[in-house]
From TrEMBL:
It is found in: Membrane. Keywords: Membrane, Receptor, Transmembrane, Transmembrane helix. This is Thyrotropin-releasing hormone receptor. One of its GO terms (molecular function) is G protein-coupled receptor activity.
Amino acid sequence: MPANYTDTSGDIFCSYYDSNTTCQEPTEGDILQVERICSANITAAYVLFSIALVFGLPGSILALITVLRLSLKPSTLYIGLLAVSDFLSLVGASLTYYTLYTYYTLIKNSDPLVEWEEFSKWFGRIFQAFSHWLLVLICLERFVTVTYPLHKVKVYTLHNTVYTCIAASALCCIPFLMFCLRYLKVVTYSKFRFISIVIYLTIYIIVPTLLIILFTALTALQLRRSQQRRRTVLTPVDMERSTKMEADLTRMMFLTAIFFVIFTLPMAIFHIINQANFYLIRRKLCPVEYAISKLIFYSTANLSFFNHAANFYLYLISARGFRKRFLLVFSKKKKFQEVVPASNYTEDE
């Protein structure tokens, strides 16, 4: 049995055998099991990503069209940019994903376009990370709105909102710039690998996830504390209108943040465990274990793409005002103009 082998199903390279480890030499049964795992891996990954693409692309477009009909505010600017970033994330990922899938399933005997695949993959990750950080900014904006409602107007001007978006986009470009340094051989990848992985995972998923959980929890806590105080300050009419607007935007943030954690936390946990094993524990995986780890890797990675596909549908579920505005945009009936006045759901607080 050779030291390195791939499955013979022609699907994907997903296992590895090192004769220098304590693993037993793979038997025919092990090879067949690896083949089945690899086949299930590529099929599940293809189906999951295709579902995310089919629902995500039109959802992002519909979300953007609906948001464009709202008055321009910091919250609506963030949501609109998130729709654009989600769309570009899915488009960029589809270029890389389907190129790899075509190579592994149809033209495996040909040389893959490594340069194009790597460039497209890392360039697309700019928008994926930007979507994550936009959600962080949305959660922060909701926290400031709930905690400091009187100071929010001064803090969150459109100019300041644009500056935060520019800063977030610059931060998200760092992993791509690091890829360019490796590609141009400015740095040695073997020595640069650990730092590159740590910085990429930190910017891409770990820090955004922690901040989203933090701001969401703080916002929920502050809402409970401020509920009684708002009742004593606002008149019944103003309270009803302000509460509806705030509740819509806050529910959108809560539901989006919850599903972000559901879709991305498994991938974050896998990467942390995998890198800890590679650099600290240094336990070599046997062929079947390696194939299973690849299955988990691709499954969690494709699950994370639903974070870019589900936002529009979460808005419809969580926010009654957004649903009405969506119906107003795509309905010619005048009755919706009476249900959703022009001033409704367009002011922040």
